[in-house]
Structures are given as C-alpha cells and as structure tokens.
C-alpha cells in the first residue's frame, strides 16, 4: 500500500524526473530532497535534476574553484529560494537561471509551501571542491513567503 506522502512525491520532479532520495547528501539538507543524475560525471560535465520537498533546503555551502567553476541552476518546477551570504533572498520560479559564482557562500531550496525542482550544472574549472557549512537559520527561513 502506497502512503499518501509517497504518491505525492512521485507526482513531483517535473520535466526531468524525480530520481531517488538524495541520501548521500541528506546530512547537508534540512528536509527531503531527490536526485536524478542526467549525465555520467565520469564521461562528461555532471548535470542532475534536484527536487526539494516543501520546506527543504540545503545548508549554506561554497563551490570552490581556483579557476572557472561555480554552479548553474535552471528552475523547472515549483517555487523556491536562492540566497547568497549577506544578500537578500531571491525567489525562484520555473524558467529562472541562477549563475552561482565560484567561492560564494549560498543556499538553495524550496519555499515552505511548495515543491521545487532545478537542474544543476557543475561548471567546469580547476581546483573544484564543495564546502558544506551551517544550516539556514530556521527563523529566517520561516519568514520567507
Ligand atoms: Mn549550490
């Protein structure tokens, strides 16, 4: 028997599909996210669809690079948020593109009342690594519409 919340999740994912629970990165997220890899990173640039359940967001993090790098998000479904450290949050809707510079601390995720899916590209560069930092403050997140 399928639980209601599972069938709800199965209806999400949008254009590029829900994929599987993002267990490998769950420690860096509040709430549940899903990952659908679209390319094989051993063969080419890694591209994946990421889906956040309502209220889900990743921790503050940094995509480090010596040259190039950063991350590009293409929002395909739902509503969500992107914020760089020290800046106002940016509301995200389908069709939005977020070009995240390398070495900039930021987070991205769903709105509290909406699922959100984005395709994420790891931009090419040298000296690439990801640094995971503290969770987004619950009170500040809860104040977002
Ligand atoms: Mn990121």
Descriptive account of the structure:
This protein is mainly beta and 145 residues long. The chain has a single domain (2-136), classed as Jelly Rolls (Sandwich). It has helices spanning 4-10, 138-142, and strands spanning 20-21, 29-30, 33-37, 47-52, 57-58, 61-64, 67-68, 71-78, 80-84, 90-92, 97-100, 106-110, 116-122, 125-126, 129-132. A six-stranded antiparallel β-sheet has the order 1-3-4-13-8-11, with no helix packed on it. The mean pLDDT is 93. Bound molecules: manganese (II) ion. Manganese (II) ion (MN) is lined by residues 61, 63, 71, 100, 106, 108.
| Residue-averaged pLDDT | 93
Q: Tell me the CATH topology.
A: Jelly Rolls
Total individual domains: 1
Beta-strand residue fraction:
35-45%
Q: What pattern of helices and strands is seen along the backbone?
A: HEEEEEEEEEEEEEEEH
Unreliable segments (pLDDT under 50, ≥5 consecutive)? Answer: none
Characteristics of this structure?
three-stranded antiparallel sheet, six-stranded antiparallel sheet, 2 helices, Jelly Rolls, mainly beta, binds manganese (II) ion, 145 residues
Topology diagram in text:
Elements: H1 4-10, E1 20-21, E2 29-30, E3 33-37, E4 47-52, E5 57-58, E6 61-64, E7 67-68, E8 71-78, E9 80-84, E10 90-92, E11 97-100, E12 106-110, E13 116-122, E14 125-126, E15 129-132, H2 138-142
Antiparallel strand pairs: 1-3, 2-5, 3-4, 4-13, 6-15, 7-14, 8-11, 8-13, 9-10, 9-12
The structure holds manganese (II) ion (MN).
Residues 61, 63, 71, 100, 106, 108 line the site of manganese (II) ion (MN).
């Amino acid at each position: 028997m399928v639980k209601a919340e599972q069938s709800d999740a199965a209806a999400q994912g949008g254009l590029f599909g829900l994929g599987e629970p993002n267990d490998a990165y769950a420690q860096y997220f509040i709430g549940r996210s899903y990952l659908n890899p679209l390319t094989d990173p051993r063969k080419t640039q890694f591209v994946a669809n990421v889906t956040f359940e309502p209220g889900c967001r990743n921790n503050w993090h940094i995509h480090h690079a010596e040259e190039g790098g950063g991350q590009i998000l293409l929002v395909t479904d739902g509503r969500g948020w992107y914020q760089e450290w020290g800046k106002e949050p940016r509301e995200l809707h389908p069709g939005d593109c977020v070009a995240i510079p390398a070495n900039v601390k930021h987070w991205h995720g769903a709105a509290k009342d909406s699922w959100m899916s984005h395709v994420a590209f790891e931009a090419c560069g040298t000296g690439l690594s990801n640094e995971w930092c503290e969770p987004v403050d619950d009170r500040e997140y809860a104040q977002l519409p």
